[in-house]
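Example 290.
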Amino acid sequence: MSVKILDGKLLARDLKNALKNEVEVLKKEIGFVPRLVNVMVGDNHGACAYAKSQKKAAEYIGIQYELETLPEDVSRQDFSECIKRLNADESVNGIMIHKPIPKHIEYGDIAQYVDTDKDLEGINVTNIGKMLVGETKIIPCTPASVMEHIKSTGIDLYGKEAVIVGHSVIVGKPLSLLLLEQFATVTVCHIATSEAGRLQEHVRRADIIVVAVGKPSVIKGDWIKEGAVVIDVGINQVNDKIVGDVEFDAACKKAAFITPVPGGVGPVTVIMLMRNGIEAFKAQMKKKGK
Ligand code: NDP
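Predicted structure in complex with NDP:
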């Protein structure tokens, strides 16, 4: 079977164009466009590169995007005041807190200050709860990107075996809900699965395998089921190369579809952030009767 590489840049381009059209319509109907603010602490090269790609995507789609930079030694008090000010500003429709943040501040703690209606990343506990009962369109960005990649294969998830490796709050756990909603049979593996020596047996039966661990080659290519869809979320630097969590070349011999790293899940994740911004804007306008 020949593998099809799921090109994240191509998918991102199509999704970006659809959002651009949607924003043009919103602008005509409402008179203005969403305004999103990314709060970044300090000056981190990797974080800046991600912020640049967000800015580029926002400009293309036609939404306002601003970076608010706080000093590296910002206090918890000043950080939360900044979030509260953005919450209170009616012209701001979406807020995100750029990771990483300094160790003296707990990300989960500060993230909960973001107004539920303006939560660009969909990680606020209220939004996670709403997602569980299908009451929000604000979906955590990386799981949303994974779902778009799976959708692009045309494969119906109904009754399929989906195996997720990694149970983090930002990827594995919310993704399990999204896959369940599509009637996949979902298994979530984690460190204890590996320690019990059972990771391979779960991966071997997966029609859809999503890996979000952050360890190169944690999934061996010959574990992949013939004809499976392989979505590799992992980002790892090995020597001078960026690689995923799956042994790519070996997995290509078995899979029907596979995402590359880089150029797979990442480019679409940025677009999902923009989509959340548009959904937040629409929900806010609806509340205001516009
Ligand atoms: P976390 O470190 O929060 O989670 C990693 C998960 O993998 C944990 O659930 C951990 O389990 C599990 N794990 C660790 N070792 C093993 C193992 N040997 N076998 C099975 N499970 C294991 O990471 P994130 O979820 O934040 O990110 C995961 C990867 O995805 C990273 O490489 C990150 O850079 C990348 N990423 C990519 C994004 C994109 O848009 N492309 C966005 C977000 C993340 P336990 O907690 O029990 O130890």
